[in-house]
């Protein structure tokens, strides 16, 4: 997982919260209109256009980034932590909710109201060494890491759909010709690009690609 570095809460949301009075209190349920649109856009921008959990692309061009296929995810569920329902630090952008068109749920929708303070890994942590991405697109917990294993199960990060999507991205970058002919400098260039945004967006499944590139880099003297 790419590490998320939270940015400043959108001014539109701060102003909306400031409207609180004796007759009206802000809540996630009544977050709508411009404040909600600003929040969605801010979350995706700080994540580089990828899901906070699986890192698949969830948004397109920046001028329409808030209209992508994602929902606002509460890392600590609203049902358990109602006081955090509008805490910006608790909000992220995760994959779509619907499974009727896009296939079985994964990531935030699969996680639902599950919470375990000892096992839940936050995407705001550096988790790049806690998950292992294989060259066939599958994912494993690194070195019997129990929280990572549980996250894979609870968020269905090993779903067939995600495995296939990761594999497609891997073979799109690491073609047989590239692997056969690329120099160390060329491998390093592509590796660095995995952690560099292009027009504000990360490449989907960047960590998975980077891990696999590193296995080839390590073979160079």
Describe the model.
The protein has 221 residues and is mainly α. The protein has one domain (11-217). It is 34% helix and 7% strand. The protein has helices at residues 11-17, 33-46, 108-111, 146-154, 160-173, 176-181, 184-193, 206-217, and strands at 70-74, 91-95, 131-133, 139-141. α1 crosses α2 (33-46) and α7 runs antiparallel to α8 (206-217). The two termini are 28 Å apart. The model has no long low-confidence stretch (mean pLDDT 92).
Keywords for this structure?
221 residues, mainly alpha, two-stranded antiparallel ribbon, globular
Quick gist of this model?
The protein has a two-stranded antiparallel sheet with strand order 1-2. Strands 3-4 form a two-stranded antiparallel ribbon. The protein has helices at residues 11-17, 33-46, 108-111, 146-154, 160-173, 176-181, 184-193, 206-217; strands at residues 70-74, 91-95, 131-133, 139-141. The two termini are 28 Å apart.
